Amino acid sequence: MTLPASTPFSAASTEKEWQFLCLCASPVASHQDISRISFGDLDWNVLLELAEEHGALGVLAMRLKEIDFAEIPAACREKLQARMRAQQLFTLSMTAELFRILEEFSGAGIEAVLVKGPLVSLLAYGDPAVRSYVDLDLLLRHRHILSATRLMMDLGFAPDIPLSVIEAGKVPGEYLFKRPGTSQIVELHTERTFRYYPRPLPVEDYFARRRRVLLDGQEIPALCLEDEFTLNSIHGAKHFWERLMWVADIAAIVARHPEIDWQCTAQYANDVGAARMLHVALQLAESLLRVPIPAPMKGAVARDAAVPRLCRQVIRWLPSAGYAPPELRERAIFRMRMRGGILAGALYLLRLSFSPTEEDWAEGAEAKNSRLRDALQRPLRLFKKYGAKE
Predict the structure, then answer these.
(1) Nearest alpha-carbon partner for 195 in 302, 285, 78, 274
(2) Number of structural domains found in the chain
(3) pTM recorded for the entire structure
(4) 265 occurs within a structural domain
(5) Measured in Å, how far apart are the chain's first and last C-alpha atoms?
(6) How many angstroms from the chain centroid is the CA of residue 332?
(7) Does residue 324 belong to any structural domain of this protein?
(8) I want to staple 184 with a disulfide (CB 3.0 to 4.6 A). Which of 135, 179, 225, 362 is the partner?
């Protein structure tokens, strides 16, 4: 397998390294399975680069630690361990920031729950520092976004979206905040920012079903396991499953949490029009990482005739880690099929194509309420970005 020239590791064939990375990312692969690989056949620099691009360095380090880093070149081992120390320090700083934000939000009467990031790392691997992430994601009700933005500013974060834009009623892809001089990023999401949910996110149901999870000795609010699993299935579909870490998260949660209520998961996914997205997530975990589809879901996945083709597409473009994205037509057809049904798929694609985010807002007129102009500008921007790719 030689990756396209646009990837940072295109100079060499990466077939062996890719297969080894998938083996390490599989929660059902034993350390004996890993030990049987001829490490001398691997290009370790390519492997580490491949793992980093796929967000899987932590999983790779975790699995190699099981075999005491045997036969791994010293320079690569030191590089990997140094990267993991940095990731652990980053996780500690972000966890402390999470606790501070949640405390301030609670004091202001703003309910929020943690999604993705360290929560998924904890659920999938039992450790919030294993999985790499770059920001904290919090879900709150849209009616609280203005006050939450002001509070984040009081906490020293600079908003990517000015208050005037929020007051004008424009909704970005996410409300992003950066702490100046640091790498700390926080994204606030509401029921209006999760555009890739085929149907509106039922925020009140999500809050009603939330639970508390122990993170570094402190309980934090989180979605119930079934809602979090659905969210991650939709998130993977949104990004065309172009990172192995998203498939690895799904596989690890399935393997690690036999208590998941799959009947509820299927119902919650169906409620938001994401049944096929759930099916594809489960099939990818089985096809790529050997985690069996849970028995209660086998029949539904098998009956979904579009799933095999969608998974073949993902498996074809996945190794390039997003550096060779599908061209516009293929993206559009993928999104339609992922939604399920001709009419439902067409309506889903239409909504995504004309639902503007901050990237589509006319420069210099971000705070103006020109939704029609922004909506018409979006498909033109998408065509410029993806239409020329063959």
Answers:
(1) 274
(2) 2
(3) 0.91
(4) no
(5) 19
(6) 20
(7) no
(8) 179
